[in-house]
Write a structure and sequence with these properties.
Elements: H1 25-66, H2 69-109, H3 114-155
Helix pairs in contact: 1-2, 2-3
């Protein structure tokens, strides 16, 4: 017991296993492990994004060189739209994942940046949620278009 009569019993709540941010060592280790997995998937996403972009540019080149000028314009335009969609669905989440990994790396040295880690995680998952809604909307539009074309073609 201390000699201070105004000191409460709760003044020594910090344990030896807690870090300065208030997280215990197991939680900190779990967060650092999460950072390693995020880096793995971010690098994998970057490699896949590069391969998809390379494939799309190759297709645009082959279509552009193989067909005459007027016939190649719709094919190149369609490929450009696909390139933009692939960029949206692959590159944007990969960038957010790299940002989240960088925040966890900063947390390793600066324990006060826990809020930044949580904000980048929220940003990553918000991006994934928005892209899921966009993807489902695209599927609904494409299915509606396919059904309307099928119904119109059966009419004649």
């Amino acid at each position: 017991m201390s000699s201070n009569p105004y000191e409460t019993n709760f003044s020594d709540l910090t344990r030896a296993t807690e870090t300065s941010s208030g997280l215990d060592l197991d939680t900190k280790e779990a967060m650092l492990s999460l950072g390693r997995w995020q880096m793995f998937f971010a690098v994998l996403g970057a490699i896949l994004s590069g391969l998809i972009l390379l494939m799309m540019f190759g297709q645009m080149l082959i279509v552009g060189l193989g067909a005459n000028g007027a016939a190649a314009i719709p094919a190149v335009g369609g490929t450009a739209v696909m390139l933009i969609l692939m960029g949206l669905f692959y590159i944007l989440p990969t960038i957010r994942l790299f940002q989240a990994t960088a925040a966890i790396r900063k947390f390793r040295t600066d324990q006060a940046s826990l809020r930044t880690v949580m904000e980048t995680q929220r940003s990553f998952w918000r991006t994934i949620g928005i892209l899921a809604i966009v993807g489902i909307s695209i599927y609904v539009v494409v299915i509606f278009f396919m059904l309307s074309v099928a119904a119109f073609s059966m009419r004649f």
